[in-house]
Amino acid sequence: MKHLVKSASLIGFTEVAMVAVSIVRNKYLAVTIGTEGFGIFSLLSSFFSFIDIFAGVWLAAPTIKYISEYNSDNNKDSVQKVFDFSFVIVFFVATFLTILLFAFSNIIKNKFLSPEVIFFHYALFAASYISTSLTSVFRSLFQAFKLVEKVVIIRIISNIFNFITVVVLVYFFDLTGFFVNVIISSLFLLFLFWRYSKNIVKIRLIKINFKEQISRKILSFGGVSFFLGFINLFSEYLRRIIIISYTSISVLGLFQASFGLTKYLGVISKGANFYYIPKMSENMNIGDRNRTLNDYLRIILLTGILFSVVAILFGKIAIRILYADTFLPLADVFYIFVIAQFLVSVQFSFSAIVVGMVKLKVHSIVTIIAHVLIVIIPLLLIKRYGLWAIGFGGVVASTQHILINSIYLRKQIGIKVRIENILIILMAFLFISASVVIKDMIIFYKFVFILVLLTLIYFNLRKKEKDFVLNYLKKKTNLTRHKL
């Protein structure tokens, strides 16, 4: 619990601290580039994320898994070999793909993108591809080593830099400036990761021995990750195509904005995952896995309920503050995206164990079903329900993910959710459902509702959990004052 709270609080508080920066940035961009600009950015992001699977995405899971495992055994040579393999493969594949992206740019724009996307914006995205791909390798390395403090520093520096450059460039060059900032920010982020990783591993281009056991293990795991990553990104791309085909690129911009808003709800789970995922990749006994799972669930559930309820009750205000009045149509369906984000956080509780134990067959089946659902459901319902159908597809997909993985872990491995966490899940269902019902009531009732929720959350905390959190926060506050 101690390490989970530390990871969740450091990264979570950093994300919260960056909210003020994001508010100004998103408000400025919403006014200057509008829903159409966000839509074009969403389409390009989706396409290049799809291309990422051929470079570095498929190596992220095995890199975290085996670096975590070898690092826990203090096997430094094997850690270096895993990093060397990932870095070299990603560098050469990303370079080759970048050449193809420019060579076949006209075909790609006409077949996979939209007439609204001009070549220069496309070219800027393509030019940032190598740095973005290599950054993913360093990010996996830092997570495998659980280097929370260094990630926090990089996060703060890169966000401040990104804020300054995007404001200046958009002011002078409008939408083109926004896309120029994409390549500048990606290069700067790569530099930061390179700078802070020099004392962890050697960064080099060497000849890879594909016959080594480590290389074969990475390729075996990576092959499954490649296939599932392809399914994942292709389904995300199809969702955006469905939105454009049945609605408009402005609605796609609203969809992109929903991601921008709901990501704030996942700050605690994001922080906890930084420790939880590599921890579950280590060699552990069933008792330790069971204890870590339930500790993680308590953190995610108790914080997730509060964040989700607040987001649903005050979603319209958040959209007006963070974006612009042209984004207000999102307010009517925002709650379904909040619920989907909450379920994704819970979903990771179980999928991290399945992947960490290399139970790739069941992981593949569950993942394929999930991505079929997030495409089929919107396709069937979007004509009638519009953007709501996209969020609902995510809710159904994550629900089946949770059910199948939890049943598998209980029946086959002996890992199960404690009764107290099951009761918290029921509480989450009741309060999140109720918040949807009262979201249009006056503010007084909303605050009373939140006060009742906070009271229940407080009584659900164990005494040692209250003391630990209070002492940890007090320690960090005193340390900050001392430094100042």
Task: Please tell me about this protein's structure.
- With 484 residues, this protein is an all-alpha fold.
- It has helices at residues 2-17, 19-32, 34-72, 76-103, 105-112, 119-127, 129-144, 148-197, 213-246, 249-262, 267-280, 286-313, 315-322, 334-356, 360-385, 388-413, 419-438, 443-460, 463-483.
- The mean pLDDT is 83.
Series of secondary-structure elements, N-terminal to C-terminal = HHHHHHHHHHHHHHHHHHH
Helix content: over 70%
**Dominant shape:** globular
Topology, number of strands: 0
Domain unit count: 2
Can you tell me the residue ranges where pLDDT is under 50 for at least 5 consecutive residues?
none
Summarize the structure.
This protein is mainly α and 484 residues long.
Characteristics:
484 residues, mainly alpha, 19 helices, globular
Task: Describe the SSE topology.
Layout: H1 2-17, H2 19-32, H3 34-72, H4 76-103, H5 105-112, H6 119-127, H7 129-144, H8 148-197, H9 213-246, H10 249-262, H11 267-280, H12 286-313, H13 315-322, H14 334-356, H15 360-385, H16 388-413, H17 419-438, H18 443-460, H19 463-483
Helix pairs in contact: 1-8, 1-11, 2-3, 2-8, 3-4, 3-7, 3-9, 3-10, 3-11, 4-7, 6-8, 7-8, 9-15, 11-12, 11-14, 12-14, 12-17, 12-18, 14-16, 15-16, 17-18
